[in-house]
Amino acid sequence: LQKNIYPVSGKNQRLNEMPRLVTTTTYEKRLALFKKKHPTLRNQYIKTITLLANNPVHPSLRLHRLKGKLETFYSVSINLKYGILIYFIIRDDLIILIDIGDHGLYE
Q: For 54, 59, 80, 81, which has the most beta carbons within 10 A of its beta carbon?
């Protein structure tokens, strides 16, 4: 499951310890395609990942739990059209990045 682990610095309002961002192999592949298809979103993506790492509950991320078959997952927004599917394991202070794409990927 774990491909890359990114230690995170900064305080967090929701988690007791500093979370770590963990990516899956699938996420890395989807991210490469996303970056190639949307080079103009690079700065927004970096801002989103930085905010997620330092303060996962920051209002601009629009963090929300998904419904239905994805109810164990959350989403944060890169912008109004694109988001990142994530899974929180609060006990282990991990944020696992699962998928990236337009908000239709949650359907």
A: 54
The residue to which tokens 């993506």 are assigned? 45
pTM of the model: 0.75
Q: Could you give the C-alpha distances from 62 to 4, 20, 53, in angstroms and in order?
A: 24, 19, 14
Residue 40 tokens, joined: 């103009």
- The two three-digit tokens of residue 59, written as one number: 């209002």
* The three-state (H, E, C) secondary structure of the chain, written as one string: CCCEEECCCCCCCCCCCCCEEEECHHHHHHHHHHHHHCHHHHHHHHHHHHHHHHCCCCHHHCCEECCHHHCCCEEEECCCCEEEEEEEEHHHCEEEEEEEEEHHHHC
